[in-house]
Design a protein that fits this description.
- InterPro entries: WD40/YVTN_repeat-like_dom_sf (IPR015943), WD40_repeat_dom_sf (IPR036322), WD40_rpt (IPR001680), WDR47 (IPR040067).
- Pfam families: WD40 (PF00400).
- By secondary structure, this protein is α+β, with helices and mostly antiparallel strands.
- The chain folds into 2 domains: 161 residues, no CATH class; 362 residues, YVTN repeat-like/Quinoprotein amine dehydrogenase (Methylamine Dehydrogenase, Chain H, 7 Propeller).
- The protein is globular, with a radius of gyration of 26 Å.
């Protein structure tokens, strides 16, 4: 063996031992050196599994039907399951027809318990909420599927016994259900094997920001001002143990149904030296990003709070937020707007320096686990950090003549970014790869304050100081509808009831109803609704299917700067310069008003799937609120 090949194999062994499977696979692919060989046929099978070439995988395993029906069923289940999980967790809106077809194929080759466990995932907000898939990633899932397939295929193909033992030995140490879950700890069914895996040093979380005081004074800060026509609601009883479905409690599956504005409390906060203007969650809901008047962008981890809400892991202990990364001097001026691409690979921000910055995201989880303090990046260099630090890539887009007030990614295409600004009636469409303006969309006669995207990216909504709500078809490069709000004040913000978050939740809900035979809980009729926040604090609701005004609310007394629908579209939240948050129950029409901030509230965001809210304010804080 050549020295270089031996060196690569030693590196591969180390990466495998550390469970760095993505790096392991990339090194194998780039170098052409494989750590082990299973024979010509299985080596080819390994290649197509790791590349996710599922049509070729089906062609490969079909001949097994003539040799062993049981082996075929086992292998078909393993690869179909992986294909299903990948499609379900794709960054774009899950395609219902594709998922239904795969589930029907899986049902033919799986036993009822395995199938029911897989179907139970449909009721979860995301795959990693299931304890069998806590650390699931695309590469680790493919790798594990291959390893499990090898054990089945060894009954037919002449695989060297030592290689089979390596597969079993490699995964056996990590599959005890009592051990810490890992990427390979999900499917192996040998209760006699004991875990020998060492405790990972990454499990310890570092507190960068102290949790807020949860004393009784906190209750005096939260002022429940108004609940129109509010009847006494029965108190929600303490959660009882419910019937297991794939080891996930039903009481955890419908957590959004427990949301009530009067039950909100402050969980934690992030502070800055200047007002925090804007915010966005990543699509997984594990991180959020803040844009500040101090010209910085901060990426914060929400793992601690999400774990508490879903699993009660911290048993009532105080919560905190990890500020994982800070990009200082992101702009020459204040950061006015920000959006996180649905692929989670890019963050775009706009500023009063007239520029848009596209920031290419490093692995924030690895950064969080490997660093003991917030990583700070400024003027092209890290100011601190330990070990090998990830490369930070940025791109600046120039083209606006004034303040950039809004940026919005196409939900299904990171290369497409829309923006609008002060004093410009044009909406800009950018190619984030080239940094060039693709199209300018004329139509508004005033400053464009906000742009929102429909879930599949088929159309976008924009509002401006000309009191018009416009819907845009990017494929036709033209406006498809204009709704005039001449009787209203200027329009500050807009959100859609069929945005990416709602579309993703709706697709999963339909699948759950189909395969779990769940009772229909969502409203039967779902007209597409646009909510608009106005300069005088009014919130207006528009039926964009019929093209008409539905209703309006006057619970704010100053600018309504931001608003958003919850993932189940049962609630609309808004924020205002009067320092309050407002809620509308979309089923009943009741509205509520609460206060948590000491100054104007500039932005409000719903978590992608949990009853968690992120608000930012001129009081220099971003606050996490939950029930």
């Amino acid at each position: 063996m050549a020295a270089s090949e031996e060196t690569i194999k030693n590196i591969l062994k180390s990466l495998e031992a550390l469970k760095f499977y993505s790096s392991f696979y990339e090194l194998e692919r780039e170098s052409g050196v494989k750590l082990r060989s299973y024979g010509k046929e299985i080596d080819f099978f390994y290649e197509i599994v790791m590349e996710g070439r599922y049509d070729e995988i089906q062609t490969f395993i079909t001949p097994l039907l003539n040799r062993s029906q049981s082996v075929y069923n086992k292998v078909a289940f393993l690869v179909k399951r992986q294909e299903f999980l990948e499609k379900l967790e794709s960054s774009s809106d899950p395609q219902l027809d594709d998922l239904v077809k795969i589930l029907k194929d899986i049902e033919k080759v799986s036993n009822p318990n395995d199938f029911n466990t897989l179907c139970s995932i449909l009721s979860l907000n995301k795959l990693t909420d299931h304890q069998e898939y806590t650390d699931w990633t695309l590469i680790s899932g493919r790798r594990l599927s291959f390893q499990d397939c090898v054990k089945c295929l060894s009954e037919i193909y002449p695989i060297p016994k030592i290689q089979i033992n390596e597969v079993v030995g490699e995964t056996g140490n990590m599959r005890s259900p009592k051990s810490n879950p890992t990427e390979l700890g999900r499917y192996f069914e040998n209760p006699e094997e004991k875990s020998e895996s060492k405790e990972e040093p990454f499990n310890k979380k570092v507190k960068f920001w102290k949790p807020v005081d949860k004393s009784s004074d906190d209750e005096s800060r939260k002022i429940f001002i108004e609940a129109l026509d509010s009847d006494e609601e029965e108190s929600i009883e303490e959660e009882q143990e419910s019937e297991d479905i794939g080891e996930i409690k039903q009481s955890k599956l419908n957590i959004m149904e427990n949301f009530q504005p009067e039950k909100l409390r402050e969980m934690a906060k992030v502070e800055d030296i200047k007002p925090i203007r804007c915010s966005a969650f990543n699509v997984s809901g594990d991180y959020f990003v803040l844009g500040t008047n101090s010209n910085s962008i901060k990426v914060c981890s929400l793992h601690n709070i999400v774990d508490e809400l879903l699993y009660n892991e911290h048993q009532g202990r105080e919560q905190y937020i990890d500020v994982v990364f800070e990009l200082r001097k992101a702009h020459l001026g204040s950061v006015y707007c920000i959006d996180w691409a649905r692929s989670e690979k890019q963050i775009a921000s706009g500023s009063n320096d007239r520029s848009i910055k596209v920031f290419y995201c490093p692995d924030f989880l690895q950064m969080q686990e490997s660093q003991s303090e917030t990583l700070i990046f400024e003027d092209g260099a890290y100011l601190n950090g330990e070990g090998n630090l990830p490369e930070i890539k940025e791109k600046i887009l120039w083209g606006h003549e004034n303040i950039v007030r809004t940026v919005c990614y196409n939900p299904v295409d990171d290369l497409t970014l829309l923006s609008g600004g002060i004093g410009e009636g044009n909406m800009f469409q950018w190619n984030t790869e080239t940094g060039q303006i693709v199209t300018k969309y004329p139509g508004h006669t005033g400053s464009i304050f906000h742009i929102a995207a429909e879930g599949s990216g088929s159309y976008f909504a924009s509002v401006a100081t000309d009191k018009k709500l416009k819907l845009w078809d990017l494929r036709a490069s033209k406006s498809m509808m204009t709704l005039n709000g001449e009787s209203f004040a200027e329009m500050n913000s807009v959100c859609l009831s069929n945005s990416f978050t709602q579309a993703r939740a709706e697709a999963k809900n339909k699948l759950a109803e189909m395969f779990l035979k769940k009772e229909e809980r969502r409203p039967q009729q779902r007209n597409h609704v646009a909510a608009v926040g106005h300069l005088d604090g009014v919130v207006s609701l528009w039926d964009i299917t019929a093209g008409k005004l539905m209703s309006k609310y006057n619970y704010h007394t100053a600018d309504c700067r931001s608003l958003e629908f919850s993932c189940d579209t049962n609630w609309l939240v808004s924020c205002s310069f009067d320092g309050s948050l407002g809620f509308v129950n979309m089923k009943t029409g009741k509205n509520y008003k609460v206060e948590f901030h000491d100054d104007r509230v500039v932005s409000i965001r719903w978590h992608p799937y949990l009853p968690i809210l992120l608000s930012t304010s001129a009081d220099k804080t971003a606050r996490i609120l939950s029930i």
